[in-house]
Amino acid sequence: MKRRTVSAGQLEEFLESAGQAERPEPSASPATAPRGALPTEFEFRLPRGYVDDDGNLHRDGAMRLATARDELRPQIDMRVKENPAYLSVVLLSQVITRLGGISDVHAGVVERMYATDVAFLQDFYRRLNSEGHTLAAVTCPLCDGSFEVDLSGGRLGES
């Protein structure tokens, strides 16, 4: 199986040449950063979305890169000491900079998200911070061709 890396400008052309008529729904893109600067904030779209107390659906958000302090701070949080599974809730609440119209994303917001969305955010966090890159290996369902998509290079499906 041959792998190749496809840049943001090439993916649409690649998909058209493979015969795909529809573009997938966008779900991740970098926030605007000056040319040549290290992007530190990345936009995403939740699979289901967060529903607030007023019944408003929030799907689009942004997550910033984690710092060492972000990863150390939850270790002294009493909620994490009592329940280590709470670590991801505290960590995500520190690095999500906005979610729809919500600019103060705290642990209570993350707690009330659907499990699907939390799993998506955990994976997104891992790709941004642990792997050192935002590349994802994908296989085209039409031609079985394998290639890599840079999740930070543009909206997912257009990377």
- How much strand? 25-35%
Gyration radius (Cα, Å) is: 17 Å
Strand order of the largest sheet: 2-3-4-5
Low-confidence stretches: 20-27, 153-159
Any overview of this molecule?
- With 159 residues, the protein is an alpha+beta fold.
- Helices cover 31% and strands 25% of the residues.
- The protein has 6 helices and 7 strands, in the order E-H-E-E-E-H-H-H-E-H-H-E-E.
- Strand 6 and strand 7 form a beta hairpin.
- The two termini are 21 Å apart.
- 20% of the residues are buried.
- Residues 20-27 and 153-159 have low confidence and may be disordered.
Write the layout of secondary structure elements.
Elements: E1 3-6, H1 8-18, E2 28-30, E3 41-51, E4 57-64, H2 68-72, H3 78-82, H4 87-95, E5 96-99, H5 107-111, H6 115-129, E6 135-139, E7 146-150
Parallel strand pairs: 1-7
Antiparallel strand pairs: 2-3, 3-4, 4-5, 6-7
List the defining traits of the structure above.
alpha+beta, three-stranded mixed beta sheet, 6 helices, 31% helix, globular, disordered C terminus
